[in-house]
Protein backbone atom coordinates (compact mmCIF):
# COMPACT_ATOMS: atom_id res chain seq x y z
CA UNK A 1 0.00 0.00 0.00
CA UNK A 2 1.34 3.46 -0.81
CA UNK A 3 2.03 5.90 2.00
CA UNK A 4 -0.73 8.48 1.43
CA UNK A 5 1.03 11.15 3.48
CA UNK A 6 4.06 10.87 1.24
CA UNK A 7 1.88 11.03 -1.86
CA UNK A 8 0.30 14.22 -0.60
CA UNK A 9 3.73 15.76 -0.05
CA UNK A 10 5.04 15.23 -3.55
CA UNK A 11 6.50 18.22 -5.32
CA UNK A 12 4.02 20.65 -6.79
CA UNK A 13 5.70 20.20 -10.16
CA UNK A 14 6.29 16.45 -10.14
CA UNK A 15 2.90 15.12 -11.16
CA UNK A 16 2.05 12.09 -13.31
CA UNK A 17 0.31 12.50 -16.63
CA UNK A 18 -3.45 12.16 -16.35
CA UNK A 19 -5.91 10.33 -18.59
CA UNK A 20 -6.36 11.84 -22.02
CA UNK A 21 -10.16 11.61 -21.85
CA UNK A 22 -12.25 13.30 -19.18
CA UNK A 23 -14.78 10.48 -19.47
CA UNK A 24 -12.12 8.05 -18.22
CA UNK A 25 -11.90 9.79 -14.82
CA UNK A 26 -14.11 8.38 -12.01
CA UNK A 27 -15.98 11.34 -10.48
CA UNK A 28 -18.68 11.81 -7.82
CA UNK A 29 -22.27 11.54 -9.03
CA UNK A 30 -23.01 15.06 -7.80
CA UNK A 31 -20.70 17.99 -7.06
CA UNK A 32 -21.23 21.41 -5.53
CA UNK A 33 -18.61 24.11 -6.11
CA UNK A 34 -18.74 27.15 -3.80
CA UNK A 35 -16.74 30.10 -5.18
CA UNK A 36 -17.24 33.84 -5.26
CA UNK A 37 -15.71 34.08 -8.77
CA UNK A 38 -16.85 32.23 -11.89
CA UNK A 39 -17.54 32.66 -15.59
CA UNK A 40 -17.91 35.12 -17.32
CA UNK A 41 -15.26 36.80 -15.16
CA UNK A 42 -12.08 36.68 -17.28
CA UNK A 43 -9.35 37.01 -14.65
CA UNK A 44 -8.32 35.85 -11.18
CA UNK A 45 -9.59 32.44 -10.04
CA UNK A 46 -12.68 32.42 -12.26
CA UNK A 47 -11.20 30.85 -15.44
CA UNK A 48 -9.57 28.00 -13.54
CA UNK A 49 -12.67 27.25 -11.45
CA UNK A 50 -14.92 27.46 -14.50
CA UNK A 51 -12.72 24.99 -16.33
CA UNK A 52 -12.71 22.64 -13.33
CA UNK A 53 -16.50 22.72 -13.01
CA UNK A 54 -17.07 22.10 -16.72
CA UNK A 55 -14.51 19.27 -16.64
CA UNK A 56 -16.43 17.54 -13.85
CA UNK A 57 -19.67 18.01 -15.79
CA UNK A 58 -18.07 16.59 -18.96
CA UNK A 59 -16.88 13.58 -16.95
CA UNK A 60 -20.45 12.84 -15.83
CA UNK A 61 -20.86 14.61 -12.49
CA UNK A 62 -24.09 16.56 -11.94
CA UNK A 63 -22.36 19.84 -11.18
CA UNK A 64 -23.74 22.95 -9.44
CA UNK A 65 -21.86 26.20 -8.79
CA UNK A 66 -22.86 28.61 -6.03
CA UNK A 67 -21.35 31.99 -6.84
CA UNK A 68 -21.81 35.77 -7.07
CA UNK A 69 -23.25 37.86 -9.83
CA UNK A 70 -20.11 38.55 -11.92
CA UNK A 71 -18.26 41.72 -10.92
CA UNK A 72 -14.46 41.11 -11.12
CA UNK A 73 -12.07 42.73 -11.98
CA UNK A 74 -14.07 45.88 -12.77
CA UNK A 75 -15.72 45.90 -9.31
CA UNK A 76 -19.21 46.40 -10.70
CA UNK A 77 -21.90 43.87 -11.56
CA UNK A 78 -21.80 43.03 -15.26
CA UNK A 79 -24.47 44.28 -17.62
CA UNK A 80 -27.40 41.89 -17.83
CA UNK A 81 -26.85 40.36 -14.38
CA UNK A 82 -27.89 43.06 -11.90
CA UNK A 83 -31.62 42.40 -12.30
CA UNK A 84 -31.27 38.73 -11.31
CA UNK A 85 -32.57 37.40 -14.61
CA UNK A 86 -29.51 35.15 -14.93
CA UNK A 87 -29.31 34.04 -11.30
CA UNK A 88 -30.14 30.43 -12.18
CA UNK A 89 -28.80 29.18 -15.48
CA UNK A 90 -27.16 26.08 -16.95
CA UNK A 91 -24.04 26.72 -19.05
CA UNK A 92 -21.80 23.97 -20.47
CA UNK A 93 -23.60 21.36 -18.38
CA UNK A 94 -23.09 23.27 -15.10
CA UNK A 95 -26.02 24.70 -13.12
CA UNK A 96 -24.93 28.17 -11.96
CA UNK A 97 -26.75 29.65 -8.97
CA UNK A 98 -25.84 33.33 -8.46
CA UNK A 99 -26.41 35.60 -5.47
CA UNK A 100 -26.28 39.42 -5.17
CA UNK A 101 -23.32 41.18 -3.62
CA UNK A 102 -21.82 44.65 -3.23
CA UNK A 103 -18.64 44.79 -5.38
CA UNK A 104 -15.59 45.96 -3.37
CA UNK A 105 -14.94 49.35 -4.96
CA UNK A 106 -11.53 50.65 -3.96
CA UNK A 107 -10.17 47.24 -2.96
CA UNK A 108 -9.70 48.04 0.75
CA UNK A 109 -10.24 45.52 3.52
CA UNK A 110 -13.54 47.03 4.67
CA UNK A 111 -14.98 46.98 1.14
CA UNK A 112 -13.88 43.37 0.69
CA UNK A 113 -15.47 42.31 3.98
CA UNK A 114 -18.76 43.95 3.01
CA UNK A 115 -18.66 42.27 -0.40
CA UNK A 116 -17.91 38.85 1.06
CA UNK A 117 -20.30 39.22 3.99
CA UNK A 118 -23.29 40.14 1.83
CA UNK A 119 -22.53 37.38 -0.65
CA UNK A 120 -22.12 34.64 1.91
CA UNK A 121 -25.20 35.68 3.84
CA UNK A 122 -26.98 35.06 0.54
CA UNK A 123 -25.30 31.66 0.23
CA UNK A 124 -26.54 30.71 3.72
CA UNK A 125 -30.04 31.90 2.87
CA UNK A 126 -30.01 29.81 -0.33
CA UNK A 127 -29.28 26.73 1.80
CA UNK A 128 -31.93 27.58 4.38
CA UNK A 129 -34.61 28.10 1.71
CA UNK A 130 -33.73 24.93 -0.18
CA UNK A 131 -32.45 26.67 -3.31
CA UNK A 132 -29.21 24.73 -2.92
CA UNK A 133 -29.10 21.43 -1.02
CA UNK A 134 -26.36 19.57 0.78
CA UNK A 135 -24.02 17.49 -1.34
CA UNK A 136 -21.82 14.45 -0.75
CA UNK A 137 -18.97 16.09 -2.67
CA UNK A 138 -18.18 19.80 -2.23
CA UNK A 139 -15.34 21.97 -3.51
CA UNK A 140 -14.87 25.42 -1.97
CA UNK A 141 -12.53 28.19 -3.03
CA UNK A 142 -10.56 30.67 -0.94
CA UNK A 143 -10.81 33.55 -1.54
CA UNK A 144 -13.09 33.82 0.28
CA UNK A 145 -12.41 31.95 3.50
CA UNK A 146 -16.13 32.47 4.15
CA UNK A 147 -16.80 30.16 1.18
CA UNK A 148 -14.76 27.48 2.93
CA UNK A 149 -16.59 28.00 6.23
CA UNK A 150 -20.01 27.86 4.59
CA UNK A 151 -19.14 24.82 2.45
CA UNK A 152 -18.92 22.75 5.62
CA UNK A 153 -22.65 23.38 6.16
CA UNK A 154 -23.34 22.45 2.53
CA UNK A 155 -21.70 19.03 2.92
CA UNK A 156 -23.80 16.04 3.96
CA UNK A 157 -22.77 14.08 7.09
CA UNK A 158 -20.14 11.63 5.89
CA UNK A 159 -19.57 13.60 2.67
CA UNK A 160 -16.27 15.04 1.46
CA UNK A 161 -15.39 18.75 1.44
CA UNK A 162 -12.17 19.78 -0.28
CA UNK A 163 -11.07 23.40 0.22
CA UNK A 164 -9.00 24.97 -2.58
CA UNK A 165 -6.76 27.81 -1.38
CA UNK A 166 -5.73 30.16 -4.19
CA UNK A 167 -5.01 33.08 -1.86
CA UNK A 168 -4.12 32.97 1.85
CA UNK A 169 -6.13 36.01 2.83
CA UNK A 170 -4.53 36.74 6.21
CA UNK A 171 -1.06 36.67 4.66
CA UNK A 172 -2.02 38.92 1.76
CA UNK A 173 -3.85 41.35 4.06
CA UNK A 174 -0.82 41.64 6.33
CA UNK A 175 1.77 41.78 3.55
CA UNK A 176 -0.11 44.38 1.53
CA UNK A 177 -1.00 46.54 4.53
CA UNK A 178 -4.76 45.94 4.37
CA UNK A 179 -6.25 46.39 7.85
CA UNK A 180 -4.52 46.49 11.20
CA UNK A 181 -2.95 43.72 13.23
CA UNK A 182 -6.23 42.89 14.96
CA UNK A 183 -8.00 42.38 11.63
CA UNK A 184 -5.22 40.15 10.29
CA UNK A 185 -5.25 38.13 13.51
CA UNK A 186 -9.02 37.63 13.23
CA UNK A 187 -8.75 36.51 9.59
CA UNK A 188 -5.95 34.12 10.53
CA UNK A 189 -8.08 32.53 13.27
CA UNK A 190 -11.01 32.18 10.84
CA UNK A 191 -8.75 30.54 8.25
CA UNK A 192 -7.37 28.05 10.75
CA UNK A 193 -10.81 27.10 12.04
CA UNK A 194 -12.49 26.85 8.63
CA UNK A 195 -9.68 24.92 6.92
CA UNK A 196 -9.40 22.42 9.77
CA UNK A 197 -13.09 21.56 9.27
CA UNK A 198 -12.50 20.53 5.64
CA UNK A 199 -11.61 16.93 4.80
CA UNK A 200 -8.68 17.90 2.60
CA UNK A 201 -7.05 21.08 1.34
CA UNK A 202 -5.50 21.95 -2.01
CA UNK A 203 -2.87 24.67 -2.47
CA UNK A 204 -1.09 25.76 -5.64
CA UNK A 205 2.52 25.63 -4.41
CA UNK A 206 4.82 24.25 -1.73
CA UNK A 207 5.41 27.67 -0.11
CA UNK A 208 1.64 28.03 0.35
CA UNK A 209 1.54 24.64 2.09
CA UNK A 210 4.25 25.78 4.48
CA UNK A 211 2.34 28.97 5.32
CA UNK A 212 -0.82 27.00 6.13
CA UNK A 213 1.09 24.56 8.31
CA UNK A 214 2.60 27.48 10.22
CA UNK A 215 -0.91 28.86 10.56
CA UNK A 216 -1.93 25.71 12.43
CA UNK A 217 -3.74 23.82 9.67
CA UNK A 218 -3.52 20.11 10.46
CA UNK A 219 -5.69 18.55 7.74
CA UNK A 220 -3.98 16.85 4.75
CA UNK A 221 -2.70 19.41 2.25
CA UNK A 222 -2.21 18.44 -1.39
CA UNK A 223 -0.30 20.57 -3.89
CA UNK A 224 -2.01 20.80 -7.28
CA UNK A 225 -0.62 23.57 -9.50
CA UNK A 226 -2.89 25.72 -11.63
CA UNK A 227 -4.24 23.99 -14.72
CA UNK A 228 -5.45 25.07 -18.13
CA UNK A 229 -7.60 23.78 -20.98
CA UNK A 230 -4.65 22.91 -23.19
CA UNK A 231 -6.94 22.28 -26.17
CA UNK A 232 -8.39 25.79 -26.02
CA UNK A 233 -5.02 27.46 -25.34
CA UNK A 234 -2.23 26.24 -27.61
CA UNK A 235 0.71 27.68 -29.58
CA UNK A 236 -0.13 29.86 -32.57
CA UNK A 237 2.18 31.54 -35.13
CA UNK A 238 3.48 34.96 -34.21
CA UNK A 239 1.40 37.78 -35.74
CA UNK A 240 3.03 40.48 -37.87
CA UNK A 241 3.72 43.13 -35.23
CA UNK A 242 6.52 44.92 -33.38
CA UNK A 243 8.34 42.93 -30.64
CA UNK A 244 5.76 42.81 -27.84
CA UNK A 245 5.91 42.27 -24.10
CA UNK A 246 2.39 41.52 -22.83
CA UNK A 247 0.75 41.70 -19.41
CA UNK A 248 -2.78 40.29 -19.29
CA UNK A 249 -4.88 40.19 -16.13
CA UNK A 250 -6.26 42.25 -13.30
CA UNK A 251 -4.98 45.72 -12.56
CA UNK A 252 -4.78 45.12 -8.82
CA UNK A 253 -2.43 45.99 -5.98
CA UNK A 254 -0.84 42.57 -5.44
CA UNK A 255 0.51 42.40 -9.02
CA UNK A 256 2.93 45.27 -8.44
CA UNK A 257 2.27 46.74 -11.86
CA UNK A 258 4.15 49.95 -11.04
CA UNK A 259 7.36 48.01 -11.63
CA UNK A 260 6.11 47.08 -15.12
CA UNK A 261 5.79 50.76 -16.02
CA UNK A 262 9.31 51.42 -14.77
CA UNK A 263 10.47 48.38 -16.73
CA UNK A 264 8.87 49.84 -19.86
CA UNK A 265 10.90 53.01 -19.39
CA UNK A 266 14.14 51.03 -19.31
CA UNK A 267 13.03 48.83 -22.23
CA UNK A 268 12.51 51.95 -24.35
CA UNK A 269 16.22 52.66 -24.04
CA UNK A 270 17.34 49.07 -24.57
CA UNK A 271 15.00 48.24 -27.46
CA UNK A 272 13.19 51.29 -28.89
CA UNK A 273 11.24 49.22 -31.43
CA UNK A 274 9.56 47.10 -28.71
CA UNK A 275 6.16 47.82 -27.20
CA UNK A 276 4.61 46.94 -23.84
CA UNK A 277 0.95 45.97 -24.01
CA UNK A 278 -1.04 46.07 -20.74
CA UNK A 279 -4.32 44.26 -21.26
CA UNK A 280 -6.78 44.16 -18.36
CA UNK A 281 -9.02 46.07 -16.01
CA UNK A 282 -9.43 46.70 -12.31
CA UNK A 283 -9.28 49.25 -9.55
CA UNK A 284 -5.83 50.58 -10.50
CA UNK A 285 -6.54 51.12 -14.19
CA UNK A 286 -6.88 54.91 -14.16
CA UNK A 287 -3.99 55.30 -11.72
CA UNK A 288 -1.71 53.24 -13.98
CA UNK A 289 -2.75 55.15 -17.10
CA UNK A 290 -2.07 58.47 -15.36
CA UNK A 291 1.32 57.23 -14.20
CA UNK A 292 2.24 56.07 -17.72
CA UNK A 293 1.31 59.51 -19.10
CA UNK A 294 3.31 61.28 -16.40
CA UNK A 295 6.34 59.11 -17.23
CA UNK A 296 6.00 59.82 -20.95
CA UNK A 297 5.89 56.12 -21.86
CA UNK A 298 5.19 56.18 -25.57
CA UNK A 299 5.91 52.44 -25.83
CA UNK A 300 3.06 51.45 -23.47
CA UNK A 301 -0.45 50.65 -24.72
CA UNK A 302 -3.52 49.81 -22.62
CA UNK A 303 -6.28 47.53 -23.90
CA UNK A 304 -9.25 45.72 -22.31
CA UNK A 305 -9.08 42.01 -21.62
CA UNK A 306 -9.76 39.84 -24.64
CA UNK A 307 -13.05 37.88 -24.66
CA UNK A 308 -12.86 34.16 -24.01
CA UNK A 309 -13.36 33.25 -27.66
CA UNK A 310 -10.29 35.32 -28.55
CA UNK A 311 -8.07 34.23 -25.66
CA UNK A 312 -5.81 31.98 -27.71
CA UNK A 313 -5.20 34.61 -30.38
CA UNK A 314 -4.65 37.24 -27.70
CA UNK A 315 -2.03 35.12 -25.95
CA UNK A 316 -0.15 34.75 -29.24
CA UNK A 317 0.29 38.54 -29.41
CA UNK A 318 2.83 38.40 -26.61
CA UNK A 319 6.30 37.46 -27.80
CA UNK A 320 7.22 37.62 -24.13
CA UNK A 321 4.65 37.74 -21.33
CA UNK A 322 5.00 39.51 -17.99
CA UNK A 323 4.16 37.99 -14.59
CA UNK A 324 4.92 40.67 -11.99
CA UNK A 325 4.27 40.11 -8.27
CA UNK A 326 4.80 42.16 -5.17
CA UNK A 327 7.44 40.21 -3.21
CA UNK A 328 5.70 40.42 0.16
CA UNK A 329 2.67 38.52 -1.13
CA UNK A 330 4.40 35.88 -3.25
CA UNK A 331 4.18 33.13 -0.62
CA UNK A 332 0.44 33.65 -0.19
CA UNK A 333 -0.70 33.27 -3.80
CA UNK A 334 0.33 31.55 -7.04
CA UNK A 335 -0.32 33.27 -10.40
CA UNK A 336 -2.51 30.99 -12.48
CA UNK A 337 -1.73 33.04 -15.58
CA UNK A 338 1.75 31.48 -15.65
CA UNK A 339 0.35 28.10 -16.71
CA UNK A 340 -1.87 29.66 -19.38
CA UNK A 341 1.18 31.41 -20.85
CA UNK A 342 3.14 28.15 -20.91
CA UNK A 343 0.20 26.42 -22.64
CA UNK A 344 0.32 29.10 -25.34
CA UNK A 345 3.95 28.22 -26.01
CA UNK A 346 5.32 31.61 -25.01
CA UNK A 347 8.06 32.42 -22.49
CA UNK A 348 7.53 34.98 -19.74
CA UNK A 349 9.53 37.08 -17.32
CA UNK A 350 8.42 36.89 -13.68
CA UNK A 351 9.46 38.84 -10.62
CA UNK A 352 9.99 36.43 -7.76
CA UNK A 353 12.32 35.60 -4.91
CA UNK A 354 14.56 32.53 -4.57
CA UNK A 355 12.67 29.66 -2.97
CA UNK A 356 9.29 30.75 -4.35
CA UNK A 357 7.06 28.45 -6.38
CA UNK A 358 7.89 30.25 -9.62
CA UNK A 359 11.63 30.08 -8.92
CA UNK A 360 11.33 26.31 -8.40
CA UNK A 361 9.38 25.89 -11.63
CA UNK A 362 11.90 27.97 -13.58
CA UNK A 363 14.72 25.75 -12.37
CA UNK A 364 12.87 22.59 -13.34
CA UNK A 365 11.32 23.53 -16.67
CA UNK A 366 13.49 26.31 -18.11
CA UNK A 367 10.55 27.92 -19.88
CA UNK A 368 10.77 31.44 -18.46
CA UNK A 369 13.06 33.84 -16.61
CA UNK A 370 12.88 35.12 -13.03
CA UNK A 371 14.16 38.52 -11.99
CA UNK A 372 14.27 40.08 -8.51
CA UNK A 373 11.15 42.04 -7.51
CA UNK A 374 11.36 45.83 -7.55
CA UNK A 375 14.32 45.78 -9.96
CA UNK A 376 12.74 47.05 -13.19
CA UNK A 377 16.05 47.40 -15.03
CA UNK A 378 16.77 43.69 -14.51
CA UNK A 379 13.27 42.89 -15.73
CA UNK A 380 13.75 45.07 -18.82
CA UNK A 381 17.09 43.40 -19.58
CA UNK A 382 15.47 39.94 -19.36
CA UNK A 383 12.59 41.00 -21.63
CA UNK A 384 14.98 42.54 -24.16
CA UNK A 385 17.15 39.41 -24.15
CA UNK A 386 14.18 37.23 -25.11
CA UNK A 387 12.69 39.67 -27.62
CA UNK A 388 16.03 39.94 -29.43
CA UNK A 389 16.58 36.16 -29.56
CA UNK A 390 13.49 34.54 -31.14
CA UNK A 391 15.06 31.09 -31.37
CA UNK A 392 15.72 31.05 -27.63
CA UNK A 393 12.21 32.28 -26.89
CA UNK A 394 10.74 29.61 -29.19
CA UNK A 395 12.72 26.84 -27.48
CA UNK A 396 11.57 28.02 -24.05
CA UNK A 397 7.98 28.13 -25.29
CA UNK A 398 8.20 24.53 -26.47
CA UNK A 399 9.54 23.40 -23.10
CA UNK A 400 6.70 25.19 -21.34
CA UNK A 401 4.07 23.63 -23.56
CA UNK A 402 5.52 20.15 -23.03
CA UNK A 403 5.41 20.65 -19.24
CA UNK A 404 1.76 21.71 -19.40
CA UNK A 405 0.78 18.68 -21.47
CA UNK A 406 2.31 16.36 -18.88
CA UNK A 407 1.42 18.18 -15.67
CA UNK A 408 -1.25 20.87 -15.91
CA UNK A 409 -4.03 19.85 -18.30
CA UNK A 410 -7.63 19.75 -17.17
CA UNK A 411 -7.53 15.92 -17.30
CA UNK A 412 -4.62 15.79 -14.83
CA UNK A 413 -6.32 18.29 -12.51
CA UNK A 414 -9.70 16.56 -12.77
CA UNK A 415 -8.17 13.22 -11.84
CA UNK A 416 -6.43 14.60 -8.75
CA UNK A 417 -9.42 16.60 -7.48
CA UNK A 418 -11.76 13.66 -8.09
CA UNK A 419 -9.52 11.35 -6.08
CA UNK A 420 -9.60 13.76 -3.15
CA UNK A 421 -13.38 14.06 -3.33
CA UNK A 422 -13.78 10.29 -3.47
CA UNK A 423 -11.44 9.80 -0.51
CA UNK A 424 -8.59 8.32 -2.53
CA UNK A 425 -5.53 10.33 -1.49
CA UNK A 426 -3.04 8.06 -3.26
CA UNK A 427 -2.90 10.50 -6.14
CA UNK A 428 0.35 9.17 -7.52
CA UNK A 429 -1.39 5.97 -8.59
CA UNK A 430 -3.31 5.49 -11.81
CA UNK A 431 -7.11 5.45 -11.89
From TrEMBL:
GO molecular function: transferase activity
Keyword Transferase appears in the UniProt entry: yes
Keywords for this protein: Transferase
Ranges of residues in domain Glycosyltransferase subfamily 4-like N-terminal: 44-226
Domain named Glycosyl transferase family: residues: 236-403
UniProt KW Manganese keyword: no
Record protein name field: Colanic acid biosynthesis glycosyl transferase WcaI
Amino acid sequence: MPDDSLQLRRSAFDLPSGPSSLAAVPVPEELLLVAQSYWPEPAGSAPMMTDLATAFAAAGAETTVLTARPNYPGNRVYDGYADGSQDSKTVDGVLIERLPTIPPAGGGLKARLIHEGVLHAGFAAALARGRVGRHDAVLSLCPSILSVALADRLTTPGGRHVAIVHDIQSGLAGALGMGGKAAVKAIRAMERRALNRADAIVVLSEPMRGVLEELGVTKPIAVIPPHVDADAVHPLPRPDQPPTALYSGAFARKQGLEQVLEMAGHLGGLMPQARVLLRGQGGLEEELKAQARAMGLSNVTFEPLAPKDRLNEAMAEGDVHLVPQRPEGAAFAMPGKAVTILAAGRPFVATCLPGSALAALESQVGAFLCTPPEQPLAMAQAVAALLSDPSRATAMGRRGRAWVESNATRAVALDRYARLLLGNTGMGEGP
